[in-house]
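Hi again,

Forgot to attach this to my earlier email, sorry! This is the prediction with 1-deoxynojirimycin bound. I've pasted everything inline since the attachment limit keeps bouncing my files.
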Amino acid sequence: MAAIPTIVFGLVFQRNIMAGLIAGGSEADPRALDPIPAISRSPLRRDPSGCTRHTVGRALPDHDRKQVLVHDLESSRHSRPAAVGGAWWRSAAIYQLYVRSFADGNGDGIGDLAGVRARLGYLSALGIDAIWFNPWYPSPMSDAGYDISDYRGIDPVFGTLADADGLIAEAHAAGIRIIIDVVPNHGSDQHRWFQAALSAAPGSAERARFWFRPGRGPAGELPPNGWQSIFGGPAWTRITEPDGRPGEWYLHLFAPEQPDFNWANPDVRAEFEDVLRFWLGRGADGIRIDSAAHLTKDPSLPEVSSSALPGPDHPYADRDDVHEVYRHWRAVADEYPDRVLIGEIWLPDAARLARYVRPGELHTVFNFPYLSCPWDAAQLRDVIDNTLALNAPAGAPATWVLSNHDVDRVVSRLGRPDTSFSLQHRGYFHGLPVDLALGTRRARAAALLTLALPGSVYVYQGEELGLWEVQDIPFELRQDPIWRRSDGADPGRDGCRVPLPWAGDEPPFAFSPPGTAAPPWLPQPKEWRDLTVDAETGDAESVLELYRSALRIRHAEPVLGDGSMTWLDAADGVLAFDRGGIQCVVNLSPRPTPLPAHAELLLASWPLEDGLLPPDCAVWLRTS
Ligand code: NOJ
Ligand code: CA
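Structure tokens for the complex follow:
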């Protein structure tokens, strides 16, 4: 496979290099919680036609059904406490909850906090330890909430601050931690500071909180430099001054509605430390830091080549002075017990990435090389080794991520002839054929691989249902600014953000309350009737029950989660490793492979065939 240049949120590197590196409140919602943790057992539903394009992963041969699933929970010999002291995040299974698409509580077709509160029982029964919420703040939603106009509130479409307080309390009562998303690189053009800056004069204190500069050219008609927005087009927009004349330009690394803050300005630093205390004081257990490597800029704003690598000489990516910000943030987080800072950082240089998890800085960073790695045993092993090597010197736990709200869903990715992914080649990937049956089979195996690796793990909502990327959303319904700003060249991220199917045979699949007239904010495929929570619950062949079993075992077995791993000898194309009495074997080769000697088959992603592990399948074994 040819190396594809990868630009991820502005940073350029080659995928083949990457693999070698690391790689105003109202009353709380009166809706009662689902009982916890009752997993309802709906009757097994099987498509009589067998394994069709849209029932993949659920129709298994009868003769081997007993071999799949099968962990006897009573046999779990040890139990990890629900919260492991101050280091809960080292082993946590973290559910990424995209509020807009999780569950609609009030019938406007948009997910909200009432919907989440009503479904907390589902998450508790799934067996996750924490929820990461994508931004829930007041926002004009120019970038789905990553354009924040008030960092201390909740957008009315999602609910109220009282709803968030109630949700945090209820989650904690259910043993679930809460991680919120903070976006420090940029705000919204509707943020009060930016509005004040627009009304103020050039050179004012109000403008100094952002990057305002005069334009070049005789009349200032050219942007201050040639920097390009990560979402496409120039990274500068010209304003109209209060007197009505064309005026200064401001910097936005993302959309024009997302002006970048100036992190050299003490107001900005103080404001965000206060925002952290606001949420940590309300009970947030962790902070996911958006675009964490971009905050500081070279004030001389030099030109930069599109192929420049991030690092100390780059004008806005991974500059050395950004670390001082996180040392301060760590001190703030340490004022509270057991809190975690998680960086969203895409970097090609493992040594540079490792600097963010040095003592006194962030606790963990997302593992994007793993997320982008093709379904290839050698490349996966490299990424895993490099991830562990990166984190080891700092004593930080690895994180493992198969998908999120910015990338194609894993079922579709693994069903394509090219199983890698890069953000700016989404158009290329969407042009490839997708074999959903193959993608689901591989995604099931990938889930067992991911959940067996040492460290913490993220599950993006819908991953546990085996949802696929919706690539045929009508153009006029697409919302992602990337779609618009690229004039359709990039299909955008809407396809992984389609509202979840909960129950029923047709859209909206109980995403909204019964009788809701408003359709879900993005259309759901009718084929998802086989992938609703209700349809999958109790179906031992479903992706959902596989995740439930795997998460239960992972939680019950102290050797899983944080710790060490040892690679085992295995045939070409097979990954096998030991976690201290539990082994994971993943067959990425085209041939069935024998299993190592074992005492008990804990879980299989697919039935064994004559005692052999078929291609694109994985098992967990107990060996002692
Ligand atoms: C990264 C977020 O994950 C993405 O959704 C967002 O568009 C950009 N940062 C800009 O905030
Ligand atoms: Ca709603």
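Residues 83 and 175 are 8 Å apart (CA to CA). The first helix runs from residue 15 to 19.

That should be everything now.

G.
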